[in-house]
Batch of 4 targets.
Target 1
Amino acid sequence: MNILKSFKWRLKGVKVYALVGRSGTGKSFRAGLVAKKNQIELMIDDGLLIHNEKIIAGKSAKKEDAYMGAIKTALFDNPTHKEEVKSKLQSTKFKKILLIGTSNKMVAKIAQRLELPEISTYVQIEDVASKEEIETAINSRTREGKHVIPVPSIEVKRDYAHIFYDSIKVFFSRKKTKNFVEKSVVRPMFNKREKGAVTISEAALSQMVLHCVDEHSGNVKVKKITVSQNQAGFNIGIFVNVSFGEQLSGNFHSLQKYITESIERLTGIIINQVDITIDQVSHK
């Protein structure tokens, strides 16, 4: 069956490329350059299917807590995850796809599991990055824990110019405490036009959360939204009012998932967690 489906891809003229390099050598950052040079529309990177710099399916291995969990996600070991990406591939028109992995064996296994044709072109990280650039990427990973996903970055900043630190860092202030955080912990700059930066204000991010709540649970009233960040991603706190008798557990777990998936797909921001606090229960 796999051979038959692979043959169908070949009949459609689909070519598979692979970018290979050790963990932390900057593959994801260089992937966009390889894709642009070879006019590649789709990428598979760490469990994600990316189309023209937008995540369209999958889940990120970079969000896994354990190393083995990350490996399994990157290799599409979970049947549900695998079928989601395969289904999206079937419904997407493309001629070229780039697989990103740490070895030839790894990318070949990804191609096999997603029932793609055999890889026709292998690109080694050393072909597209200098020794110094690779060493810098490794140091960034080992010392600072930075991870890259090849989608346009979104800088989250407040609405006032005087608190925007520079093109790399994002400044958050809570009362009088100050915290500078590396933006690239979540998404390093990978601007499509290579000029300036794509930004979204904290207020706009809050509006997105409000819109998600309204779409999913129109009878839940949001009182306050907080946004914070750590190396795992952004943490969103939502304080709500609900009516007495409202079904809470299942509905709110579903709402958490809806907010996380919607914002990640629309912005490229990694949402580490969404905490919902019931601030008040009112009678109808």
Note: The domain at 152-284 is CATH 3.30.70.1350 (Alpha-Beta Plaits).
Target 2
Amino acid sequence: MNGQIKRPVNNLVESFIDNAVRDKVSAPAIGSVIYCDLAAGTAEHSGIYIGSNNIVHLSGDGIIERVNPKQFINRLGGWNTAISIYVSCNAGTPVGSTNVAKLAESMIGSQRSYNLIMDNCHQFTAGCLSGNFENSCNFFTFLKDEVQIRIGGTEWRVWDL
């Protein structure tokens, strides 16, 4: 029980530091990987920024769709507690790729056999980075490694919406 209480408190402290102390970014780069916390920080949801306040992501019903930041962060039927969207950065500057954005945009309207563990938003996002949508990056930790390899993202900063 103590661990269940400790995690949300730690996430609240981290979120405060990210939002009030660390520098934010005014906007992601085209093709930036973005994410928000889900379920009090026990999981994450990821997608690709394609410009003009649009994000492409794999929804929980398996549809690849274009959404705005508010739609992206309001996951789980409004039960999501996230307050921030994080952006792939290097030395405080957003990093992305126009090729990544173009691939993500070309996938809008497609459908996948969504599975929380085996075919999820992180696998889709990693597929936009690598071109291989049948990759093994189905956990956020693996996606972060792919972000570093493919677009040089070494840190995450809050998007100042």
Note: The first strand starts at residue 33 and ends at 38.
Target 3
Amino acid sequence: MANSHTAQGCHLRKPEVTNAYLIGDGIASLASAVYLIHDARVPPSQIHVLESGPRGPLCSTGTADSGYFISFEQLLNFSCVCLYDLLSIVPSLNDAAKTVKQDIDEFNAIPGNRTYSNARLIATDQDGPQIVVAKELGLRKKDTRDLLSIYRTSEKKLSNLKVTDCFEEEFFKTNFWCMWATMFSFQPCHSAAEFRRYLHRFVLGLPTVDTLGRLDLTPYNQYESIILPIETYLKAQGVNFKYDTGAVRLAFAQSSDIKVEGIYFGKDGGQELIQVECSDIVFLTLGSTTACASIGSNDSPTGPVLSPLDTLRASDTGWRNWSSLFFSSLLNSPHITQLGNPMTFYSRITESCLLCFTVTLQSPEFFKLFEELTSNAPGRGGLTTLKDSSWLLTIVVPPQPYFLNQPDGVQVFWGYALFPAKIGDRVRKPMFDCTGQEIFIEVLGHLNFPDDSSWTNSITIPCLMPYATSPLLARASYEDRPPVIPKGSSNLALVGQFVEIPEDGVFPLEYSVRAAQTAVFKMMGMQKQPNGICKGGQRLKTLIMALKALLS
């Protein structure tokens, strides 16, 4: 029925006359392009991706000689239904007859690749590192009651509260909090409403929070296993990628509704204009968790966090585009509450920064000592958190090789810290003032590994990410994150981690793909719905298992 309408009022579009302009780096634009081709049948040549560069924020780079680098990666499991749906469409780079999802399934079917941590937490003791019995969550009865209370409380009542408003100080010293926080990058100052969403979303993981069982691994790092195959597929299909486009300004029609008429973008020092026709659609990625990332080296630090104003000036297009959209909407009042408020998320960098690091080793000694300490082969342990480190360091020792071009004899692991502004325990300065080598020394100290010639050729690349956890910040208003399809929008959809998807946790890849599905299906006027949110809390048996874990 050509005149059918969705609940959002988007009419059924004819794909053969639709041009789609996808503005922004990252998986939200890539996923949108895949679904426009596969589900909406838009010709690939009519899909235009405007990015700041040919290698987006999720890229992994480096060599064995210069040192490898990966950006922060997320945990994957069966609950990533949208991401896995996407990867069931994209062909494998190794075998075009298979999909990326099949690659991941086959890799995880290998018995040695299933995760089961024997050392989720490691404590620092006078006698050396001690494996914590993490199954003992350390929760007092008051903590358990508070957890159940926040689980049952409506999100509306928690909207502007922080996690610290809902728990006593002792809760943040428990094994449960240490494991939950480092799994999802939560800090005590983060949003209580988001914390509640994660409890509902991942309650299935409570019984295995100490072992990280049932995680899915990718054959290589997530950029080369997920992002690169998607980019390769889209380019082979004929999608038009426009790189180095700079900041974008949208031109709106003079109307009480939201209708984009033009896209202005910077190119080669000048400005270009794309005329948006009545049949066209525009998808804009809001914000960025990788913006203003500062990469150091083995011999130089990342440097301290800039002020919010300075970071916005130096920021990538994601934040500048949203800020431009927000401030321009102030001149047209019907748009204000529909386009969100970026200031809520980019103005509290001390609450949203994270520092990750990647270590390249020419010697097998570290992996050998780590396996002896943890009883976990590479990839089996998932995350290992050094719970007494002032930076709250977490280490990930993945299966090898971790990079497509990684030679035999070279090993790579990575890690991250939630509190890089604190003074280190071995290297007595803030983490962002430390060189890569000094960060590695801090890790060795907590593990009580010898600081000797075994590490002479090691290379550690640190990366400070000011906005890494900004989606988890407490919101002043529910409208700070706008809907995927703003009310009254005829051709503009908003995607990424800073849009509002009720009941879902802002997990980077899964959330962005769900937003992309929503944008494509609704903006194209399709009857299809996004994959359902996997919430174990809807089943009584799951809740009983989770309660047993909390009360054990």
Note: The longest strand covers residues 260-267.
Target 4
Amino acid sequence: MSVQKAIFPGLIIGIVCLLVMTRILTGGAARVVTNTLPEVGKKLQTQAAECTISPAYPESIRQWCGEIERYARENGLDPNLISALMLQESAGQPDAYSKSGAVGLMQVMPRDGKAASFMCKNGPCFADRPSMQELFDPQYNIAFGTRMLAELIHKRGNLREALKAYGPMDVGYYYADLVIGIMNNHQ
């Protein structure tokens, strides 16, 4: 008996066993995945239906819908305003870090890192701010940034002045008008 004749039946048996095992192993798994797909789809539809943020915002912003709506509501602000600010500041990236040292989704200046070197007449400008570590937490960042904007609106008297103070220095109303424009364009 030649080697080729001996290998051929073994090869056929091996392939058949492999196909049978693959069918057994993936058949059950495929049923589990198939059975969970409607549940996942239903959950996503429910979340999308509950989100009041304009569907014109990209998913990178809408993924934070729950947090945006919660903290906007707590601070008496429009969730679409917070979404516009977040889109401008970080494009929805929780690990965003600017060259000036601003951190996270809402690009808040922390008390440490690069921002620690910014001095005001009474000492470090951001001494009363959270740490970088705290601000890299998306929920904390949204909560703090939203509260900070609400306080600026109260202090400055209107949204445009508040956004001017929230944004980068020395750009006048450019930043404020940009964020307001984003919000208006995403209605």
Note: The first strand starts at residue 119 and ends at 120.
